[in-house]
Each structure stands twice: as C-alpha cells, then as structure tokens.
Amino acid sequence: MEKFLDFIVRAGSLDRRVIFVVIALVVILPLFFPLGLPIRPTNSSQDVYNAVDKLEAGDKALISFEYGPSTKPEIHPMAIALLHHLFQKDVKVYITCLWPDGQFMAMEALDQVAINTYHKTYGEDFVLLGYRPGAEAVIKGLVSNIRKVFTVDSQGNFLDDIPMMTDVNQVADFDFLFSASAGYPGTVEWVQYAADPTGVTMSTGTTSIQVNEVMPYVQSGQIVGILGGMPGAAEYESLIGIAGIGTSGMDAQSVAHLVIVAFIIFGNISFFVERRRSKKY
C-alpha cells in the first residue's frame, strides 16, 4: 500500500514540462491515428443532414463561406463534410464569400473535395463566385439580381459564359442555402435578408460560441438545423460515413480531456496523501 501511495505522490508532483509533453502527445497522435470513438449526432445536426439529403441530382445549393484561419479548425471540417454530401448527390454547388478570407477557405475545400475526390468540372458542377465587400448589402443584391453583384466569377469568367449559371439570377432560384459562419456578416444576415424573404430552405454551421446566438432562429424554424463547432462537424461526418478532420479532432479533444482529469485526480490525491503524512510526523 505504501508503495502505491509513493507512486501517487510522485505522479502528483510531476514536472510541468512532462505534463505539457504528455498533453501534446495525446492531442497530436489521435489526429494522425483516429481512435474512432463513438459519435452520437444531435437533433440539430440530423436536421441539417436531412435537409441536404432531400436534395436531388441537379438541384442548386448556395454555400456562403464566412470564416478565416482563426476559426478554420471549427468550421472548415463541416464545410468539407457538407461538400462531400452535396457532391455525392450530384447537387450543383454555388459558392459566395462575405469574408475576404472565405474565398481562400472555399478554394482549399473545393480543391480537396470537388476536384481531387469527386473529379467535378468547374462551371458545370460547381462555381466559385468569390468575395464582394458590402456585408448585408451583398446579400440583398444577390436576392435581387446576382449579376448586379457578380459580373464575373473568382476566375474572371463572365457569368453568362458559365453553363451552370443559365437561369440562375437570384437567391430564389436556389433549392438550398448554407452559411458557414464565424460571425458578422453571416448566418443572421442570411436569415434576415435572404432565407426569410425568399423562402429558400436554409441551414448553417457556426463556431461553438455562436450557437446560443443562432439557436432562436433554429427553434423558430427559420433555419433548419445547425452544426455547432467541431462537435457538429464530427457529427455530420458520422452521418455521411466519413472520418474526417472533425472526427479525429474530437478524438484528440476527448482523450486530452480524460488525461487532464486524470492529472487533476492524481494531483488532489497526492496533496491529501502528503498532508496526512506530514500530520503523522
């Protein structure tokens, strides 16, 4: 028993540098070697999946990228998972960006999913309209007439020369709208100025901290479901049957939390054992 208590005391007084190394390892290793821990989708994530799954081949989906490098770990995995689902169903994907950095995030996601995975053709299966400044003014312009906002796409092609832009003139021409949002302008503005006025079905994915702000729109039925941060991305990945960044990220997060709790428990036990021994002597 005394040997065990000695071990507990030593474990509770580890050098902090050892603790940092252990935490680093338990975070990094699951990212490269996913553990496949079980993920149970929430109703909100299931609702997003159901809304996308109702789409048919040839339907049109407008995706708005409104995040940058600082929020990429939370939102990029869900954007990639969503693109997987849409391209699996042969839905036509149209992408716009309300944030400057959003265009670079969109290009990276399209390269990974549309081009390298599904070998889709630009201009026939997907198009990147790009970024325009103006926040909600851009949304209002898209609701009125897309060509008033975008005369060319992100590559400089005239919209009228792009096959999949035929008969696509305004937001009402789309079958589905998704906002991948890290703040303003983002989800709330799309609801107020696009989804509500046009009646187009809308879903969203946000950072975890934004969920409480957006949830009232979900509860009122103005938004169909919400993917909240990395957990939402992992849940969506499980629904479409892929193990992506969100899944491995949740593995890393879960293991790291367990290790931190273990260190806290050992530290407290060590403290009480040492205090009891000091009282003895």
- N-to-C order of helices and strands: HHHEHEHEHHEHEHEHH
CATH homologous superfamily annotation of the largest domain: MTH777-like
The CATH first-level class of the largest domain comes to Alpha Beta
First-to-last CA distance: 18 Å
Q: Main β-sheet: number of strands, strand sense, barrel status?
A: 6 strands, parallel
Low-confidence stretches: none
Total number of domains: 2
**Structural Rg:** 24 Å
> What is the number of strand segments?
6
Mean pLDDT: 87
Helical proportion, percent range? 40-55%
* CATH fold group of the largest domain: Rossmann fold
Number of helices in the DSSP assignment: 11
Structure characteristics:
281 residues; alpha/beta; Rossmann fold; 2 domains; 6 strands
